[in-house]
C-alpha cells in the first residue's frame, strides 16, 4: 500500500497532512499560539476543547484567525 | 470626579475609544494609546498569515490588563459575514463585545442598516454586547436599541475622511431622544476640535482611528484628542451660554468715571 496523504486547505492554501492528524497537532505543527487564535473547520467554529478530538479529513477547509490592528472599514 | 462612560454595566474613565490600524509601527501605536488615555481599543479579525508570521504578534503589543478589547467586524458586507466574524472574535479571547459593522458600499463605507439590524438581533440573542456603527439616523438608532444594542455609534462623516461632524442637527436630535444607551460618535473625526464639538453636543464618547494614526505625529494627536474629548465633555456638563446676536457687557455698567 502506498503511503497516502490528505490534502486540506488552511487559510486558502493547500497543505498535505498525514492521515489521522488532529486539529491540535496541526496547530502545533504550524507553530500557532492556541490562546491567540480561533479556528473554523468547514465554516463551523471549533471550540479549543474540541481540537484534541477532531481528526482532519480529505478536503477539509480550515480557517485560522486572530486579531490584527484595525479601526473600521477594510484595512 | 466620577464622570465615567458606562457601557453594558462596565465603567470607562476615558470617553475616547481608539482603533489600532494604520500605525507605522507597534511602538508608535503603543505610545499613541498611552497618550490618548483610552481604556478601550478596537481590533480587527483576520486570517493568521501562515507564511509571514511577523503580524501574528499584534496581541503581544496590547496590554490586555490596561485596554478593554473591542473586536470589530470591519470589512464585512453582509449580516452573515459580520455574525461569523463576531463569533470568531469571541472564540479568540473569550470576549462578548463587538463593534458591529455591516458595510453597504465600498467607496463611502456607509453602513447597510438593514444588514446591521439583522446582525444586531442575531448577536444579541447569542449574548453579545453589540455596539453598532450606523448612519446618524434616529429611527435606525431606535430600532438598534430595540434590538438590544448596548450603545449606538453614529458616524460623524465617512470612515477615515477626517471631515468632522457633518450633521450637528442629527447628533443633537439623537442626544435628545436616545437616553437608554450611550451614543458614541464613530468615524469622521479629523482633529481635536471635532472631538471636542462632538462631546459638547452631548454624545457620550468618540471612537477614532485614522484621525490619530494618520496624523504626522500620532502621539501628539492622541494627547490632543484626549484633551479635546475632556474639554468638550466639561463644556457640555458646564452648560454653555446662549448664543446672542448683539454684545452683552461683562463689566459693571455703573461707577464709570466721568
Describe this structure in words.
The complex is a heterodimer of chains A (75) and B (258). Chain A is 9% helix and 35% strand. Chain A is mainly β and 75 residues long. In chain A, strands 2-1-5-3-4 form a five-stranded mixed sheet, with no helix packed on it. In chain A, strand 3 and strand 4 (44-46) form a beta hairpin. The N and C termini of chain A lie far apart (49 Å). By secondary structure, chain B is an alpha/beta fold. Chain B has a single domain (5-238), classed as Aldolase class I (TIM Barrel, Alpha-Beta Barrel), CATH 3.20.20. Chain B has eight helices and ten strands. Chain B has a five-stranded parallel sheet. A three-stranded parallel sheet of chain B has the order 6-7-8. Chain B has a two-stranded antiparallel ribbon with strand order 1-2. In chain B, 45% of the residues are buried. The model of chain B has no long low-confidence stretch (mean pLDDT 93). Chains A and B meet through strand 3 and strand 5 of A and strand 4, strand 5 and helix 2 of B. Strand 5 of chain A pairs antiparallel with strand 4 of chain B.
Topology at a glance:
The complex is a heterodimer of chains A (75) and B (258).
Chain A: E1 6-10, E2 13-17, H1 23-29, E3 38-41, E4 44-46, E5 61-69
Parallel strand pairs in A: 1-5
Antiparallel strand pairs in A: 1-2, 3-4, 3-5
Chain B: E1 5-7, E2 10-12, E3 16-19, H1 26-36, E4 40-47, E5 68-72, H2 79-93, E6 97-100, H3 113-125, E7 129-134, H4 138-146, E8 153-154, H5 168-177, E9 184-186, H6 192-201, E10 205-208, H7 210-213, H8 218-238
Parallel strand pairs in B: 3-4, 3-10, 4-5, 6-7, 7-8, 9-10
Antiparallel strand pairs in B: 1-2
Helix pairs in contact in B: 1-8, 2-3, 6-8
